[in-house]
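Figure-free illustration: sequence to structure, shown twice.
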Amino acid sequence: MTNSAFDVALFGEAMLLLVADQPGPIENATAFHKRTAGAETNVAIGLSRLGLKVGWASRLGTDSMGRSLLATMQAEGIDCSHVTSDPSQRTGFQFKGRVTDGSDPPVEYHRKGSAASHMGPADVDEAWLRSARHLHATGVFAAISDTSLQASLKAMEVMRAAGRTISFDPNLRPTLWSSTETMRHWINELASRADWVLPGMEEGLLLTGQSTPEGVARFYRERGAKLVVVKLGAQGAYYDSDAAGTGQVDGFPVAQVVDTVGAGDGFAVGVISALLEGRAVPEAVRRGAWIGARAVQVLGDTEGLPTRAQLEEARL
């Protein structure tokens, strides 16, 4: 194991999240709960709560939203030394509606031209990045601008050259890409540079044309992934790996689905933390499924992410 300053490094955009206090169209809501949002920040918070050393690089405005987000990340014990607070830029935010039927809630983004979208390859501090054992990347940061895509590619190149492991969650945001074809090209290009690829089944169908978990996994395995875990929602997940062959892990029963957003990020937290601890692939996927199930039972994106004590209590 490399003697590293961090277990995991991440690049990504944090957004202020305003969650409606009642079900129905967002425009009908009169009050909102303030939360944090962002695929990479959700994972960073989840990993830090489990006791891993996490470094997060980003760019925020100096507005109240940026100050709030930075304070939240620092309070979670995350290294924010590579977060730039830019007085000339604004912080992104989003509204999220409430649903009662377990479906995906409506989400409205206000992130175009945000501070984080101005990040580029120059924001990748190679020495800082190489001080981490592992890089977790997602398709969201790559999608927010042409320069952030180049930063994503560079970060992965740096870590591959250093012999570090890389995980990648496609985390598709079609509205951020110029076309489905462009999205498919770049997401698959990024996935081909990762060791562990974590697509959802619907994402996998769109990205690979394969209609089965086995087919999706095979697509990325043939492009170099050492492990592919295909998320199957309530049915759990299918895995295909160098170390453990293939298999399926059942999902955990959930009494009531409150909010589906953040489940995939919670799943990534479970898989990445377990693998970095040296756990076997089936154990890692089971931990991911458990944290993903916790995530859908709470209102915000991070409220369901467990502490190390809660993880140990669940014997995961």
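We now fold a second protein in the same way, so the two outputs can be compared directly.
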Amino acid sequence: MPADLLPPERQPVIVAARRTPVCPVNGALRNLRAHELLAPVLRELVSEVALDPASVTDVVIGNAVGGGGNVARLALLEAGLPVSVPGITVDRQCGSGLDAIVLAGRLVAAGGSPVYLAGGVESTSTAPLRAHRTDDGGADFYRRAQFVPESFGDPDMGVAAETVAQEFGIGRERQDAFALASHHKALAAIQDGRFAREIVPLATDTGTVSTDGGPRRGLTPAIMGRFPAAFVTGGTVTAGNSCFDADAASAVVITSLERARQLGARDGLLVRGTATAGVEPGLLGIGAVPAARGLLAEAGVTADEVDLVEFNEAFASQTLACLDQLGIDPHRANLDGGALALGHAYGASGAVLVTRLLAQARRAGTSKAQALAMISMAGGMGTAALLEYRCL
């Protein structure tokens, strides 16, 4: 049953969403561990919604390359929530933050009018070194986990992005232009203060960080054209049209429509539906396509009827391929720039998409808007969430 047909006590709605600045790996947030990034966001959400901290049912957090140990529980205690509040950490790699929100929404739909804090976090800068134990007791260090069996090739994401570019005919010039536009949009959003209300400033050893650190001024088509192929000799995917690793945290308050009204929430994002799908691992960048396509069809919504679209820009090639396949004009997506400019903080990125959508909907000043969050992820998967902004 579509979520918007559920009774108020089971109808999931996101009533608040915040994030940290998104900063390049080893940049301004390099000394903050994952729970130290996330705790201020949780604390701010509890304050914004005037929640009794003890009333939080659970904290559901996505994380991809952290050190384990249930960062959700660690962060909520760091944030000052009482020991009675539990936490659970979700790993669906790049999709972890969005999938944490999806999971919380499904738990709300199960009934009982609970209140969840859900989202994602990644401190790529402080991620632990990882190694396989060798037969002689030594350590064989590796940079990334295995995503699929070797029989599937287990492609690196950059190589897969190049395969997507070839498979769907996304040329170098178009990739560069899209990436450049992402920087320009993000810089304009920063200049206009459009991110200010969603960002929770963070105190660091060198001062307070309150602005995204990734968008670059001075980029031109000529500069973009100078980047060499990064993953395949003679290819089209470069450092300029690919995202960079980043540190960030983002989370939402998600509860039932009934509970939201009791809390005095004036508006929010109704969770109309969610979907996750798998694809051929060699084309992992298009995982969002079957998820979003099936979700929109089930909801009876066409791509043209979606007012706001946020897609995680891991690579320009896969972003453009997905949008093309779904019939979404790229100019309509990521109105304030995306990961090509802001950076990709793995486990946090999916939650950042939702935070951006709520901020955009509120800024638009409309009483109702359809919104779509999408992310493709390692291993050949994708998650999509169809949301509807409404006055409550």
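Summary for the second example: DSSP finds eleven helices and 14 strands in the chain.
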